[in-house]
From TrEMBL:
It comes from Daldinia eschscholtzii. One of its GO terms (biological process) is copper ion import. Keywords: Oxidoreductase, Transport. Residues 161-177 have a biased composition (Basic and acidic residues). This is Ferric reductase NAD binding domain-containing protein. Residues 77-229 form the Ferric reductase NAD binding domain. The keyword Transport applies.
Amino acid sequence: MVSDLALKVTIPIDTTWRPGEGARQPKLVFYVQPRGGLTGHLAKAAALKPGYSVPVLIDGPYGGVQGRPLYTYDYNLVIACGAGAGLSLPFVMESLLRSAWNQRTENKKPGTKIQVVMATRDSRLAQWYEEALVEYLEENGVDMVPDNLDISIYQTGMQEPKSDNATKDPESSDEKLNGNSQVVRRLPINVFSGRPDIRTVVRDAANQSGLSVGIAACGPREILKIVQDEAAAAQLRIMSSKSSASEVYLHSEVFS
């Protein structure tokens, strides 16, 4: 798939798979913003010839969330800045599928609450993000969106609120884009102007009494430092038997 917003590259990862064997073919999916050079060449080829195929060599291994999967925690917080926005997609997609499965099997166990907070200068990120998730829902036959999902996208390139504390409250009328929160179609995506208060977001998530909290963050070092400091403070509170989450896990990735 290719658009002005992103080039979607799909790579089968099991060459022994054959149609009709029951399971869906496993694959890797990359979302690439077309620019110059190789990405621009691939985007032009895909636009002219849908389904365009080229050999790909993948070197690894690569990292990821270690130990327990993030969905095994009661509450998930995913923080992504700039190009790190792609980190959140797999967590959201997995949450959508698990919630749909629970509904179909009448599983009464409440799903993991997942909160996604993104900051970007790209005003079109919300559109791309929504398109990627809608396409994923359609591909997997999911026709519902769970109420345990909350996505906030902060457009930092727009004029920020004058109040220093405005971004601490997502319901603040000064913070909402053009005075009103934009909810993208049927997905719980809210778009705000200004910068999120990352410190407060992490602290609030880690202070939920009795819950296990899994945090994943991707962004520049200064943002990760804030997240790491708050996660460490939460773990100290747990060790001191103070009222807070029962467990806090952090996975962080820096990008340059």
